[in-house]
Amino acid sequence: MDLYxxxxxxxxxxxxxxxxxxxxxxDSMRARMLQPKRSVIVTLPIRRDNGHVExxxxxRVQHHLTMGPTKGGTRFHPGVTLGEVTALAIWMSxxxxxxxxxxxxxxxxxxxxxxxxxxxxLEAVSRRYMxxxxxxxxxxxxxxGPDMGTNEQVMAWFMDTYSINTGFTVPGIVTGKPxxxxxxxxxxxxxxxxxxxxxxxxLDLLKMQPDRCTAVIQGFGNVGAVAAQGLAFKDGMKxxxxxxxxxxxxxxxxxxxxxxxxxxxxxxxVLAGFTEADPISPDDLLxxxxxxxxxxxxxxxxxxxxxxxxxxxILAEGANGPTTPAADQILFSRWxxxxxxxxxxxxxxGVIVSYFEWVQGLQQMFWTETEVTDRLFRILETAFQAVIxxxxxxxxxxxxxxxxxxxxxxxxxxxxxxxxx
Length: 421
Ligand code: NAD
What we know:
The protein is α/β, with parallel strands linked by helices.
């Protein structure tokens, strides 16, 4: 497994080991459940605007194909490694199984800092990545979507490149496309909306009133900004802390989220220099006293160093893998202080609405935004209740309960299909 050596993969493997021990999964099944079915590494030579040719490394990992095609986003980020992409694919598998979607998990990425690319260069990286992946993917084998550093435009380039190769339009090859080329309404907001829905459900269980609560959000991209909007505008919550990779900001009386969004729109998409709140250290942001903390950026930001110091009542994991297993142990010992909504449940809104987009693309029949959102909340509600019920009856931390449900379903499918030949 050295192939996948990476802190994120080590996290995913350790989480799986804990669940496998809890579920008494046979040793012979463990590697079959954890190791990816396929991992593809590609080299992408791109002509830069200055005429030089530069090569970038790209990855696609398909974790398992037992329950249908694989599904997962594509990350463009300087920190992308094979191991990180593999961990993200594994988490996608448990997430899809937990929410009852007919998918295995996948993930892909390119090790690139998109801020150093012109629009033409970004298009070249995107198209070349898709071109190299064509032999390995398909609307019935592996469906791509967006993740950090990619967006609707990148998905449109992916679909166009794939479709040019097949000779006809194939909307089902990617989700998160613009609505004008077969995307679904409500996809861009889906993950953040799901995060907000689940926070509301947790507040309800804890008998807390949203408009009397405070929130802190790390990451102000697709997930973080949409969650901030929902919590502030829909629930009347005071968002006292926000951050992105350029800075963290605090305002005791609540940050004007509309002003923060306007700032990012006018300043290259970043919060740096935001004047309507006070700058604070990114580390201190996470340990601010608040009712709801939403990590919505990178993996492994809640660690054994800060888990004991978190002062939130609800930890809503918008990001994938924000909490390390060591931090999990600490949080479990604080289960009556910190209510964890684990990532594979909390951010599942994205893949659920991606699934809706895929279904609409295959059927060429499109739904209204109300239909999309109603169906999204229904699936999240079922998964939320299942996790709470399992956690209560088996006295498990929420993450273990969520993962146990997901892992059990994949295991049952593998056992039912048997081993070929
Ligand atoms: P994005 O690229 O739109 O935004 C990422 C945000 O995180 C940006 O504001 C960026 O500045 C910030 N960030 C990066 N490094 C940071 C750091 N060190 N400290 C603070 N902020 C930092 O990405 P996104 O789509 O919002 O994804 C965020 C997380 O949510 C990722 O973990 C992703 O895997 C997960 N996720 C996204 C979706 C989706 O539908 N977009 C679905 C499920 C999970």
